[in-house]
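thread from #wetlab-drylab

HS: before we spend reagent money on co-crystallization trials with iron/sulfur cluster, can we at least see a predicted complex? here's what I'd submit
DV: go for it
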Amino acid sequence: MAERMVHLKVRRQDGPTRPDTGRWEEFKVPLLPQMNVISALQQVQLNPVTVEGKRVPPVVWDCSCLEEICGACTMLVNGRVRQACSALVEQIAPNGEVITLERMTKFPLVRDLIVDRERIFDDLKKVRAWVEMDGTHALGPGPRESPEQQQERYALSRCMACGCCLEACPQYNDSTSFVGAAVINQVRYFNMHPTGAMQANGRLDTIMGAGGITDCGKAQNCVQVCPKEIPLLDSLSSMARATTKRLLLGWLLK
Amino acid sequence: MAAKKTVRSEGGAIRRVAVVGGGLAGLTTTIKLCEAGVPVDIFSLVPVRRSHSVCAQGGINASVNTKGEGDSPRVHLEETVYGGDFLANQPPVKGMADAAPGIVYMLDRMGVPFNRTPEGLLDFRLFGGTLFHRTAFAGATTGQQLLYALDEQVRRFETIDVVDEVGMTIAGERMVRKFEMWDFLSMVLDDAGRCVGMVAQDLKSMQIKAFPYDAVCLATGGPGVIFGRSTNSVICTGAAAARAWRQGAIYANGECIQVHPTAIPGADKLRLISESARGEGGRIWVPKDQKDRRAPKQIPEKDRDYFLERQYPGYGNLVPRDIASRAIFQICFHEKRGIYNDKTTKNENEVYLDLTHKSEAFLREKLAGILEIYEKFAGVDPYHNPMKVFPSVHYSMGGLWVDFEKDASGSLKAGSPRNHATNIPGLYAAGEVDYQYHGANRLGANSLLSCIYAGMVSGPAIASYRQSLARSAYDLPTSVFDDAEVRETEDYQRILEQNQGKDGENVYQLHQELAEVMLRDCTIERDNAKLDKVIEKIGEVEERLKKVKVDDPQERANQNAQFVRNFESMVGLARVIAQGARNRDESRGAHYKPGFPKRNDAEWMRTTLARFKGEGQAPEFIRSFDYECAGQSVHVTDEVDVSLVPPRERKYETAGAASATAAKKEQTHG
Ligand SMILES: Cc1cc2nc3c(=O)[nH]c(=O)nc-3n(C[C@H](O)[C@H](O)[C@H](O)COP(=O)(O)OP(=O)(O)OC[C@H]3O[C@@H](n4cnc5c(N)ncnc54)[C@H](O)[C@@H]3O)c2cc1C
Ligand code: SF4
Ligand code: SF4
Ligand code: FES
């Protein structure tokens, strides 16, 4: 029996200032058991030769954990934004269909499939996504919390800053400063924590102006692509309510 | 001379310290340094929030004893050194066990969503090597949650300005600066052999740059990728540690590599199913009949062999990892009793890990994170079907040698500059990259703890070291740094240019070949004749490495060239591991030689200390050395400090055997 092959079609570009190098390249590599898109790309590294028989520099991409928890390997697989490591070849191309791989479009290109998602981390700084603690010295346990609230917070805390929701969001791009669903979700997460709540207003203030919650057009694309099933719509609407309340209150007190 | 506590050097530069690595250890070190007023630069291969620590699932140990079981830090200490088969120096372990409850409370205050009891207190689960509920957890993604909490605190310091010794804010200078997607290449050493900075490469632009630092702390994690597929992230190559080793840092107990009993077989990675699955009641079994072809759920209890429970009635499925892995290996490899596969008509190297007797609601609350991984990657629902698993390389107990200073109670002396110092003055190491806490075998959920504890200790130690400096690295002649930068730039050029136009070797291919022999002959069972072959293979790979040619001539994000450089370092570390294993003629913890099945304290209760001798040469194994720390000369030997818990034979057949203190309590309770 002929060896089964995986057929990859990869969008490449050498760097942000080199649009002239934009190109598609195709590779065929042997199918391995339980293969995912990353292991297919690893096979390309072993023998970086295109279907036309041309030897080329191996494709570069971002990955680390290989178990869909670090968020590094986000890319467009067959046009859909997702993690490449959990894209199993048997599932997305059961009959040897072509698998297309492209970089995310909302972040600056580094090279090939790698983009720079620093903006997410900068935005987390902007909204002060942390608990203000007095220090790491011994001050005893934290506040008690009900198991219900823990479960609710836990569901929000699993965001791996992968950027899928930002890629899918029509409001998120270079011409706006919208922080996006992932970051607004973090505001809710910290505002829910008993200690974090002590700075809740300060955090809300950071998402009340330009780039904040009112930039969301409620398209709901974000929640559909989130691999961690984070209740992003709840987070968006709950922060919309909280900011409206704060705005009204502030206005009344004037 | 610069005043010792000054924030600025004589020349006016901000005196920073570098922390390489943004996993739990690196981030904790950073926070502690910031709290001590020391500005930090963090370097990491990936944005720190994506560091390998994010993978940890099961939890973090602390003897908080909220379940009224009589657990205590003393019992934690005893079980840890017993589990490690008496190869760990005990004072640091005592320091860690004593600090553990405070560490978990600190994380709790940072907002980690730890699971709770109905009363709203922290919940604790069972893990291997103990009979106490000692493991705090946040679902089954504890590492992710801890990493995020620390990352967030560090991000806070990215917004805080440096303040000088008289309280003046220095505008535009933040306490933390991050260099993410940068690769540590080497230390900058001054004439006296002190580490005064480092050279790193930006993995986007490939620019190479030398930086002065008053001290450098490596928190670069483990070396699992040397074995090819493992439970580790692809960035866990050990290359940073290997480079420090090549520059003179001593590497300790390299042969102590942990193989985790339960991982999902896969083409690119062996994904872990955490020990917490067994802590929450999971059972390991194979069919009694070797050729049983029924689906697992069709096999009744009486036809199943729960071999761990049978062999180790005291601890059952929660025996330490080395023991469980060997038992599975024995069943699959030697007895050919792995799960029978009708299609291949073979007994596969797989056993069942079964949770199906637990309710789905319970499993979702406690283990969803890991069961999700199984569902996603194996394509089978683990709530209703037993999982198929096999052992995988997981963790390195060995690592860069680091020092400690004892206090009167036999614990670590707080703030001593010797704690976590390597033998290179100014170079510290913390986290999986150090060798300090786990002896010859690590207990589950002790690593997240040791990483954070190492950071808690390293931060103050580095701050003391920095104060002891008569002269800041920032006041050295710039030529020291320029030379280092030129050296690394030339070396990178060599990699790009060598063997071009020839038929050269492919580095990924070489890696596969090396990994295969390391995995086969240098993990669960070790045999001297086979290890000789492994070492021979390493020599061969080293030779062929000279013929490697990169396929990528590009100036940006050149992962191909970067991997060549990594691999050149990894091969050196492979030698340390394999040669260390060859030398240690006994069985202790994870290091098991059927030819020498007993532990031999008289000859081998000592630390393996490996020193670099030269390219392509066998490492030198030494019994003692001297080094200098903060102006003090320290004599070090390979003797293990067993001052707190006297060594005894390690056995898990009877309950409570791992801790004499716990066993005594058991008796008085009747
Ligand atoms: C799947 C899995 C599950 C686990 N579960 C548990 C558990 O439940 N409980 C437990 O206690 N332990 C667990 N462990 C072990 C534990 O996760 C690790 O030992 C621990 O996270 C290591 O942390 P670290 O801070 O030392 O390093 P890491 O988290 O590995 O971080 C290393 C850092 O160094 C950086 N780095 C590395 N090399 C370089 C370089 N050359 N230049 C610049 N930066 C570099 C990386 O970018 C990264 O930021 C688990 C391990 C695995 C693999
Ligand atoms: S709901 Fe808001 S955040 Fe989500 S995709 Fe739409 S515009 Fe973007
Ligand atoms: S919210 Fe979901 S999609 Fe968005 S970054 Fe987080 S994990 Fe990714
Ligand atoms: S590599 Fe971490 S999410 Fe895919």
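DV: The first strand of chain A starts at residue 5 and ends at 12.
HS: ok that's useful, forwarding to the group
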